[in-house]
Amino acid sequence: MTPFATLVPLNDGNAMPQLGLGVWQVRDEQAAEIVATALQTGYRSVDTAAIYRNEAGVGEGLRASGLPRSELFVTTKLWNDSHARAPQALEDSLRRLGLDYVDLYLIHWPVAGGETFLQAWEDMIRLCQAGLARAIGVSNFTAGQLKRLMQCSDVIPAVNQIELHPGFAQRELRAFHADYGIATESWSPLGQGQALQHPVIVQIAQALGRTPAQVVLRWHLQNGLVAIPKSVTPQRIRENFAVFDFTLDEAAMQAIDALEQGPRLGPDPDVFRG
Ligand code: NAD
């Protein structure tokens, strides 16, 4: 039987799969095939963005699967130059995807040095009310930026998608999210592959007869995080989803938690303008 990802409840009454496919740096021509492979494997969630320029290919893969729309969970994101035109940007994304709605629409970056995200958020609330996005959230927001957003709006983001992997575990921001019922979604969950070389991870994987990627993804799942690993290799896409039939014990979880916390791999939201 095909395993399905566990679901994480969102603060708006929706729920999202805890494991999905990330498609950053997947070429549009390649996206349909990659998405189709993932859906055959059991993935139901795909994370794209306007700036990835592969929404058309993603949409093609979704349609080719023949799966009912209600079984799919599609995320896309509002790019930094479009904060003042969210309704048009979402319409463009939906057209490329070939969908009537997305399951989750995120503000991709807060865009440091300004507060354009406040207008984007107000528009996104209306897009959600109009049914064009089932859930809305943000990405790369710091606690300070989230506080500012929540000062100006009664609607708390359902999700904050942030860089998060064993070497950059974001404990403080996760605690802040927990206080407000915001789901934490990990981007670069495998540390862009770097986490897989770490001797502690390799040793745990060997002891369990699993791969380092599977161990890292279990760490995300057991921490209640949503993870969206990316791969374009069918065998790895399958490997990354074969994580629902084992668990890490407390000692393994603690050993991964104890890994040295390094610098970010991606941009710092306090300075990044895109
Ligand atoms: P990732 O941590 O998912 O690592 C992906 C890389 O790890 C692959 O390119 C491959 O080299 C390697 N890999 C994957 N599976 C493997 C396996 N089983 N064995 C060995 N190596 C393996 O990094 P990512 O692509 O940066 O992040 C995942 C997704 O997060 C993206 O595709 C995108 O959807 C999202 N993302 C969002 C933002 C944002 O600003 N919101 C930023 C970056 C990424």
Protein architecture, described:
The chain is an alpha/beta fold. The protein is about 40% helix and about 15% strand. It has ten helices and ten strands. An eight-stranded parallel sheet has the order 3-4-5-6-7-8-9-10. Bound molecules: nicotinamide-adenine-dinucleotide. The site of nicotinamide-adenine-dinucleotide (NAD) has 26 residues, from helix 9. Nicotinamide-adenine-dinucleotide binds near residues 188, 211 and 231.
- The number of helical segments is 10
Strand order of the largest sheet: 3-4-5-6-7-8-9-10
Class by alpha and beta content: alpha/beta
Shape: globular
How many strands, which pairing sense, and closed or not: the largest β-sheet?
8 strands, parallel
Q: Please trace the helix and strand order, writing H or E for each element.
A: EEEHEHEHEHEHEHEHHEHH
Task: Count the E strands.
Answer: 10
Proportion in β-strands: 15-25%
Low-confidence stretches: none
Cofactors and ligands present?
nicotinamide-adenine-dinucleotide
- Provide mean pLDDT, rounded: 97
Q: Gap between N and C termini, in Å? A: 43 Å
State the helical fraction.
25-40%
- In angstroms, what is the radius of gyration? 18 Å
Topology overview:
Blueprint: E1 7-9, E2 15-17, E3 21-22, H1 28-41, E4 45-47, H2 55-65, E5 73-78, H3 86-97, E6 102-107, H4 116-129, E7 133-139, H5 143-151, E8 159-163, H6 171-180, E9 183-187, H7 199-208, H8 212-222, E10 226-227, H9 234-241, H10 250-257
Parallel strand pairs: 3-4, 4-5, 5-6, 6-7, 7-8, 8-9, 9-10
Antiparallel strand pairs: 1-2
The site of nicotinamide-adenine-dinucleotide (NAD) has 26 residues, from helix 9.
